[in-house]
Amino acid sequence: MAAIKSHAEVLDQVIFAEYSHEPAERLAAKLIALAPKGLEHVFFSDSGSTSVEVALKMALGFWRHTSEARHRIVVMEGSYHGDTIGAMSVGARGPFTESYEKLLFNVERIPFPAPGREGTTLEAFDAICRRTEVAALIVEPLVLGAGGMLMYSAECLAALRQICTAHGVLFIADEVMTGWGRIPKDSREERCLSR
């Protein structure tokens, strides 16, 4: 009872739409300190699928609110981004997604950058960016998790990011799996409070 009372005094049990609380703000500050320069905002979500849905909405909304009509999303073959409609749209198609096919939106796919074949992936992505108005690229950085635990190099990831920059394409890193363990060890209290 004491723990519940203590937490109830510092946590708002509401969505973050217009509210916040000190533990979340402390955790956000620590995450920003770990992030590369220029990443200065944190969006808390309750699952990987929801995070992907929000990232896609933000990317498509960004282009909708500019004068450019970009709506194409590029994904890596064999990727997995979650089980909601948008997340399934940007993941690999197969028996699991078959029942929802009419609900899923079309995406452009680039081959997985298998060792020794990174150039094929980079050329394919650059060609798509030259041929159509790409809104965003979404990747699982460095490893396709559910797609078979397939690894690719940090250099290839950086090159994909450079192509995004060259063509003004937004870059979405789905780091649900690769982000594990990167929260500062001294933020255990925030991790407990944010669950």
What does this structure look like?
The chain is α/β, with parallel strands linked by helices. Helix content is 42%, strand content 11%. It has eight helices and six strands, in the order αααβααβαβββαβα. A four-stranded parallel beta sheet has the order 2-1-3-6, sandwiched between helices. A two-stranded antiparallel ribbon has the order 4-5. Strand 4 (143-144) and strand 5 (150-151) form a beta hairpin. The radius of gyration is 19 Å and the shape is globular. Residues 187-195 have low confidence and may be disordered.
What topology emerges from the helices and strands here?
Layout: H1 2-10, H2 22-34, H3 48-64, E1 72-76, H4 85-89, H5 95-98, E2 108-110, H6 118-131, E3 134-139, E4 143-144, E5 150-151, H7 154-167, E6 170-173, H8 188-193
Parallel strand pairs: 1-2, 1-3, 3-6
Antiparallel strand pairs: 4-5
Helix pairs in contact: 6-7
SSE ordering: HHHEHHEHEEEHEH
The strand count comes to 6
The spatial strand order of the largest sheet comes to 2-1-3-6
Low confidence ranges: 187-195
Query: Could you estimate the helical fraction of the residues in percent?
Result: 40-55%
Number of helices: 8
Taking the alpha carbons of the first and last residues, their distance comes to 18 Å
Q: Overall mean pLDDT score?
A: 86
